[in-house]
């Protein structure tokens, strides 16, 4: 089983839960590493990479629990990825320390259309100077906007507003609007533009394989009918 920061956060969240969390497909027997159906487990195919860039996931309350979450894929590929639960009033001290670490350039990844006019915005990841720490607000679109608006401990940081023209391949949840991408897709593009090409390609491949197997595990999905005949290939 793969152990990463998101899975550890998930374990902590489960430990303090007062009742079972019932995500869609909760009756399926899942691998506790990749959260896919056991027969479609991809843990053995995870290929960790090194990168100059680093990621810090700030996750809304139930996000680490969801099998469809793709922030976990970043932590699969980049083992030094950080993950914290979000709190408006009591952020984790370790999160505050990570944001204040002066060996990195912290950047809050969010669309610039939601940014106040006096806040610095960059559209291209830095390739010079300190390595970037990409802070990603992981949740539904409504949850991400809430985290962006109500995290005063992030207000002083510049915003990384990435411009992505390729359409999203994420179909596991309904998008809030056209042009939106899932967490893993944005991370792969950030890595590519930051010069971490090998990590970007590995994350993209990992995401596509995860998507394929997730859909194959859904009853009556066309992918399930195909996989009854042909093996899934990376």
TrEMBL record:
EC number per UniProt: 2.5.1.25
Keywords (A to Z) from UniProt: S-adenosyl-L-methionine, Transferase, tRNA processing
DTW domain span: 27-219
Pfam families, per the entry: DTW (PF03942)
GO biological process: tRNA processing
GO molecular function: tRNA-uridine aminocarboxypropyltransferase activity
PANTHER family xrefs: TRNA-URIDINE AMINOCARBOXYPROPYLTRANSFERASE, TRNA-URIDINE AMINOCARBOXYPROPYLTRANSFERASE 2
Protein name: tRNA-uridine aminocarboxypropyltransferase
Upper lineage: Bacteria, Pseudomonadati, Pseudomonadota, Gammaproteobacteria, Enterobacterales
């Amino acid at each position: 089983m793969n152990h990463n920061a998101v899975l550890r956060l998930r374990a902590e969240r489960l430990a303090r839960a007062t009742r079972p969390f019932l995500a869609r497909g909760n009756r399926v027997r899942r691998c506790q590493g990749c959260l896919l159906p056991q027969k479609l487990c991809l843990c053995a195919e995870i290929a960790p990479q090194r990168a100059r860039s680093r990621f810090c996931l700030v996750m809304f309350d139930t996000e680490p629990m969801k099998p469809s979450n793709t922030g976990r894929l970043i932590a699969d590929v980049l083992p030094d990825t950080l993950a914290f639960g979000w709190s408006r009033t009591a952020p984790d001290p370790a999160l505050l320390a990570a944001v204040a670490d002066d060996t990195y350039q912290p950047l809050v990844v969010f669309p610039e259309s939601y940014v106040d006019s006096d806040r610095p915005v960059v559209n291209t990841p830095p390739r010079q100077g300190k390595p970037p720490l990409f802070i990603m607000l992981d949740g539904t679109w409504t949850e991400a906007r809430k985290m962006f608006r109500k995290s005063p401990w992030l207000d002083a940081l510049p915003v990384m507003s990435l411009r992505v023209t390729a359409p999203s391949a994420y179909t596991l949840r309904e998008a809030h609007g056209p042009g939106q991408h899932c967490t893993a897709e944005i991370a792969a593009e950030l890595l590519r533009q930051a010069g971490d090409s090998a990590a970007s390609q590995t994350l993209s491949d990992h995401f596509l394989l995860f998507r394929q197997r997730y859909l194959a595990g859904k009853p009556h999905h066309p992918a399930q009918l195909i996989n009854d005949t042909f093996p899934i290939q990376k």
